[in-house]
Amino acid sequence: MAADLDTLTQKITAFRDARDWAQFHSLRNLIVSLNLEAGELLELTQWKSDAEVAELPHDLQAREALEDECADVLLYLLLIAERAGIDLEAATLAKLAKNEAKYPVAQFRGSRRKYNAPE
């Protein structure tokens, strides 16, 4: 059964607290760490073609690295949200509503243009 965001947050904060690491987890440090982990995720694609990147999930070793880096990004995002008091589910739904208003289907279907770029 898949864990929800609250359950995942409880698990990661329990892991953190058991090691007394909260003292190192200022909001700034967590944001920096998230970006470092995102860089490690990006590094998996360095010097690879789109076709090679598309094959990553099909190679056992590459898939494990992809899973690990995705998990690291999520873990830091959960810690940031916990530290900042952000309800990620509510924030995500609110952002999706904003994006739906900015990018109406009739105007943007199949387009990569940004909402404020000229047509």
Overview of the structural elements:
The chain is mostly helical and about 120 residues long. It folds into 2 domains: about 5-85, Orthogonal Bundle (Helix Hairpins); about 85-119. The protein is built from 6 helices and no strands. The protein has helices at about 5-20, 25-45, 50-55, 60-85, 90-100, 105-110. The mean pLDDT is about 95.
Spell out the blueprint of helices and strands.
Layout: H1 5-18, H2 27-43, H3 50-55, H4 60-84, H5 88-102, H6 105-108
CATH H-level homologous superfamily name of the largest domain: MazG-like
Task: Write the CATH fold name of the largest domain.
Answer: Helix Hairpins
Largest sheet: none
Low-confidence stretches: none
Mean pLDDT: 95
Number of helices: 6
Shape annotation? globular
Report the CATH C-level class of the largest domain: Mainly Alpha
Based on DSSP secondary structure assignment, what is the total number of beta strands?
Answer: 0
Rg, Cα atoms, Å: 18 Å
Strand content: under 5%
Residues in helices, as a percent range: 55-70%
Query: Structurally, how many domains make up the residues?
Result: 2
CATH architecture of the largest domain: Orthogonal Bundle
Question: How far is it from the N-terminal to the C-terminal residue, by CA?
Answer: 45 Å
Structural class by SSE content? mainly alpha
Output the keywords:
6 helices; Helix Hairpins; 2 domains; 119 residues; mainly alpha; globular; 68% helix
